Amino acid sequence: MSVVAKLLCFGLSASTLGSAGSSNPNYCVDQNRRKIVQTVYPVNEVKVLNKIRTKDKVVFITIDDGVTVSDDLAKFIEKKLLPITTFALAGELWRNRDWFTQRANMTFENHTNTHAHMTLIEPEQQIFEICRASQVIKNVTGERPVFFRPPGGSWNEEVRESVGRSGIKYLLLWNVQIYRGSTSMAGRTSLSPGDIILLHYTPSLKNDLKILLAMIKTAGLRPALLRDYLH
Ligand SMILES: [Zn+2]
Predict the structure, then answer these.
(1) How far is the CA of 199 from the centre of ligand 1 (A)?
(2) Residue 16 CB coordination number (10 Å)
(3) Using one digit for the tens of pLDDT, what is the confidence trace for 29-87?
(4) For the chain, which domains are there?
C-alpha cells in the first residue's frame, strides 16, 4: 500500500466546466481528472451537527488529531469496550496506522490533511485538504470517511460547500470537551443524550477518558458510535 494518495484536487474554472455562474465549481478528481466521489452534495444538504437528536441514552466519544497513542491506551479502550469515532489527521493516521487499524469498534473520519484553518484558505485548498485526507483514510482503513470535522471548529458557508463537493454530507462539531483534565460544556453540569464529546490523542487521554466515563455513568448514559446514529 502506498501512502502517496493517487489524488489531485483541481480548482477548475467555471469556463472549463461550462457552468458559468457557478460560484465554486470544484470537486475531487483523480490523476486522470476523473471525478472520484460518487456523490457530490449541494451545500444545503450538508448537515452541520454539534449534537445528535436521539431519545436513546447515548453519547458519542470523538477523539481528534491522532498524535499520541500507546499500548496502555489500547488496553484501556479495549477493556472498557469503548466505541470511538476518531478524527485523526492524515499524516498521524498513517504514522500510527498499525495501532489504529488494530482497534475494534472505531471508525475513522476526516479532520483535514494538515490541520488547516479552513476559513483562511481558498475553496480549492479546502477541497484538497478534505479529499487528500479521505484518500489516506481509505488507503489505511479500506473505508471512506462519513464525517468531516474542521480543525478548531472553524467553518462557514464556503467551507460547508467544499465539504459537500468533497463527497461528505456531515460537518461535525461538538458540544462538550474534555482536555487535559478540564471539562467544558457550556454551563451545563451533566451530560445529556446525543452529546458529542471532543477529546484529543494526548498523553492525558486515558485520564480524560476516565473523567468522561464517570460523567457518563452518573448521567445514566452509554457511549455509542456516531455512524450508528446517522439521520
Ligand atoms: Zn484537531
Answers:
(1) 10
(2) 10
(3) 776 777 776 689 999 999 999 999 999 999 999 999 999 999 999 999 999 999 999 99
(4) 39-229 (3.20.20.370)
